[in-house]
Amino acid sequence: MTKILIADDHQLFNDGIKMMLSPEDNLQIVGQVFTGKDVMDAIHRLSPDVVLLDINMPHLNGLDVAAQIMQHHQSVKVIILTMYNDRKFVEDCQKMGVQGYILKNSGVDEVIMAIEAVVANKKYYDPKLTKSTTNNQHTDDFFMKQFQLTKREIEIIGLIGKSYTNEEIADKLFLSIATVKTHRNNINLKLGINKPADLVKFALENGLA
Questions:
Q1: How far is CA 94 from CA 63, 69, 80, in A?
Q2: Which regions in the chain score pLDDT beneath 50?
Q3: With helix as H, strand as E and coil as C, how does 4-25 read?
């Protein structure tokens, strides 16, 4: 019997996955959580074999949760179950050693296939990723939700990461220099960043540049 923990902030989807997997004789849904910060506590209490984990979770995103699981609960298998098919997220998960990554438009049979694969100590990365993975299809959406950034602020962060000056950003985006400076101040506040070098580092590390 494989014990499953479902971690997704959308209750309807969370309940739907539970409903679809519950009839399987070899699977047991031991718990459901709806925020990133509740996952580790649930693992301690419920000792699941597999965690089905969304990326975009409140309080603590799924990538950070996955890193914690990889570090502190190496026997627990992680399958990212997400709408995000961006190359950066996939590569980050591969580097961390996450065992599975499947898209939310998959059928229940594929979810079961992924579970069976990781329990057998194999990797399962959605075959659709090879066709649909892109460099920036959903990344902006992720950072908008995670850090409350606007599309314009994300665009400016990307240009800062490419070493554009305020004047060059203003020219490229048809903005005044004062507007660019205002955007930069707002970005710094939202990210808790004070130094220009740290903002460049943020842009590069998060694939925004």
A1: 11, 14, 11
A2: none
A3: EEEECCCHHHHHHHHHHHCCCC
